[in-house]
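Anyone? Bumping this.
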Amino acid sequence: MVTGIAHNAVNVLNMDKMLDFYQNGLGLKKAFELHREDGSPWIIYLKIAPGAFVELFYDGVVDRDQNYAPSQIGFNHWCITYTKLQSPLARLTAGAYVKADTKPVPFHGDGLNLWIDDPEGNGVEIRQLKGEAAYGGRDEILGIDHAAFVVSDINKALDFYRDKLGMKELPPIEKDGKPWISCLDAGNGQVWELMRGGTQVRANTWQSYGSTHVCLACDDVFATVETLRSKNYPIMIEPNVGADKNTQAWVTDPDGNRIEFMQIHPDSPQANA
Ligand SMILES: [Fe+2]
Ligand SMILES: [Fe+2]
């Protein structure tokens, strides 16, 4: 049912600073923007890869601690992959988003990994999956690799994402010989990571700055909703057509994270970005 991670949505305090980081640092391109009915700016969409975006919402509100500690329940970080990390690293260094001597760390054989915070404290991982030679020297953004959530109860989280939503379970990532991160197939080669160890509840209003929701693309939003309903899972917002022409529906996961399901319309700005 789920075919990929369509976007990560962030409520922003200072749009200029965030745009500088995501555009000039990470290298994402502005795709389009939406305005509210009164004409005021609402959301800026930056494109990562076909069908994959970050949504930057204006007017985030400081009503919570923005420290994404591993004990804090909820969205923890997301990961963008590149053919090479040299270019984003050089740009992030030039923009003083990372220290001059920052080096990515080796990851899974020939990959490289770097953890950074955006200007408002949101965790972003950037990753080079294979050695540069594998891409013939091409220098580009490949897409979203994963989104990671700290969960309060791994069994409840798996019951929702695996058993009710139907995401296939992949081998877990272990720490000290024990399962640590449960990995689920989000479609499109992307992974939905559920990290054990959440103990602290973090405020999570629609306006709270930082991560506000993550969107999963679906072939058929109505079918996804009916499947969840048939398993007695509550639907927060029933399927409806949004301002962007796409059909969307919303649930909250067992820890209260807002999850949007979206069926992309061929005439939508996302499909034509
Ligand atoms: Fe990660
Ligand atoms: Fe969204």
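Late reply, but here is one note on the structure posted above: The chain is about 15% helix and 40% strand.
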